[in-house]
Input
Amino acid sequence: MAKKIETRMKMNLYNSPGRIWLVLMSFLCLTCSSKSTLEWEQLFNGKDLDNWQIKIKGYELHDNFGETFRVEDGILQVRYDQYKDGFNERYGHIFYEKPFSSYLIGVEYRFVGDQIKNNPGDWALRNNGIMLHGQDPETMGLDQDFPNSIEVQLLGGNGKEERSTANICTPGTQYVLDEEIVKEHCSNSSSKTFHGDQWVRVEVLVLKDSLIVHFVNGEEVMRYSGPQTDDGSLLKGGTISLQSESHPTDFRKVEIVNLEKYYKNPTDLRAVISSLLSEKRYTKE
Output
């Protein structure tokens, strides 16, 4: 799905918030010995899809065609066994009902089985995503492929080649890196490749339009700032959703620490983030 950079424009409009928090993060003590006492809120309760909304391309909001999204054995599953004619570009998203702006989200996932027939191609093999700062599903068109959002792209290895995860893709959006606006659709993180059906934990630190940092099994793999729509409007918050893109996927954890109440106090925010990041969280079978 990734393509070479088509356009990079010198960033001349975005200056204050991103730089402030980039400086802040550069001073964080990531090896602090204190353990986080903050509570994780479980967005996925392990029982049902209450508090979630489903939008699949070609279908009305709340129409969970083919039970694409379901819960079995405490796992949120993405499945296609009822797609009798194959995938046929029926891209889907399951949205948490409440928007967020500043937070740390943790997702544990794995890819299982085989990609369904009539799929989009090799780029969608073992491919899913966490969509952040997304648009309200109520505003999506009937045949819209993806919500406008910042996608933390989740990829699994194909058994042969290197294939990083927690990459960035930008449906209807762009972002700032090294003081330049990046319009490339997808860019790779520095993560290692995860082959097979192993569980992987991805965390994302999101501070409104100031800073976004990706972590894989406790290791930072990417950071950037200034998430914005293609017309340059900064994104300070939005929906969170997970995808269906033709490969069966399991999610056993979707959890969040809401940082909104700390955002306006840099001292408190720094202490909270330092505490959260002092612990390297990774998957355990």
Notes: Residues 8-277 form a domain with the Jelly Rolls fold (CATH 2.60.120.560). The chain has one domain: 8-277.
